[in-house]
Automatic annotation (TrEMBL):
<dbReference type="InterPro" id="IPR004398">
    <property type="entry name" value="RNA_MeTrfase_RsmD"/>
</dbReference>
<keyword id="KW-0808">Transferase</keyword>
<dbReference type="InterPro" id="IPR029063">
    <property type="entry name" value="SAM-dependent_MTases_sf"/>
</dbReference>
<protein>
    <submittedName>
        <fullName>RsmD family RNA methyltransferase</fullName>
        <ecNumber>2.1.1.171</ecNumber>
    </submittedName>
</protein>
<dbReference type="GO" id="GO:0052913">
    <property type="term" value="F:16S rRNA (guanine(966)-N(2))-methyltransferase activity"/>
</dbReference>
<dbReference type="InterPro" id="IPR002052">
    <property type="entry name" value="DNA_methylase_N6_adenine_CS"/>
</dbReference>
<dbReference type="Pfam" id="PF03602">
    <property type="entry name" value="Cons_hypoth95"/>
</dbReference>
<keyword id="KW-0489">Methyltransferase</keyword>
Length: 179
């Protein structure tokens, strides 16, 4: 994986092969950040990265100047890797090793962007639980955005707070906003 833009532009990061992850493709990531760039000043927002995996999305936000990034993943290897990269590049990423759903049930952390990249094989009710918990627990700041990455074979448009979706190859991003 590589960082697309910002302070660490073009840096390649090689994750250990034994991590249980599917990193967002560079093409999809670049498209996502083009959308976000038209809506947010990266140095003025906070981000919650759920199912953070390799930290790919967190690194991109950090490279673009975001100073408040929280990455949550239940895999110890993923958290350890994110911490190593964050330390190496002096990135402001706070990691939390936790089951994402347990974290969302208890969290009071409010951010501008909540990004979730759960396993594509999740059953639909697991996908539906993410926006339900984010909005029920008021985790988005005013004008905030929840983004869920999923397979093009998964349709989340019927879920509450759904705004729109964008497809990039086999990847899809569904955007949710407070009404």
């Amino acid at each position: 994986m590589r960082i697309i833009s910002g302070l660490y532009k073009s840096r390649k990061i090689v994750a250990p092969k034994n991590l249980p992850v599917r990193p967002t493709t560079d093409m999809a990531k670049e498209s996502l950040f083009n959308i976000l760039n038209n809506r947010f000043y990266f140095d003025a927002i906070s981000v919650l990265d759920l199912f953070a995996g390799t930290g790919n999305i967190s690194y991109e936000f950090a490279s673009r100047g975001t100073q408040q990034i929280t990455s949550v993943d239940q895999d110890y290897g993923c958290i350890k890797f994110i911490n190593q990269i964050a330390e190496k590049f002096n990135m402001p990423i706070n990691t939390i090793k936790s089951d994402v759903f347990k974290f969302l049930e208890k969290s009071t952390l409010q951010t501008h962007i909540v990004f979730a990249d759960p396993p594509y094989a999740f059953p639909e009710e697991q996908f539906a639980k993410i926006p339900e918990l984010v909005f029920q627990n008021n985790l988005l700041l005013e004008d905030g955005l929840l983004i869920i990455e999923h397979s093009k074979h998964t349709d989340l448009s019927h879920l509450s707070q759904f705004s729109y979706s964008k497809s990039y190859g086999g990847n899809m991003f569904s955007f949710f906003e407070a009404n």
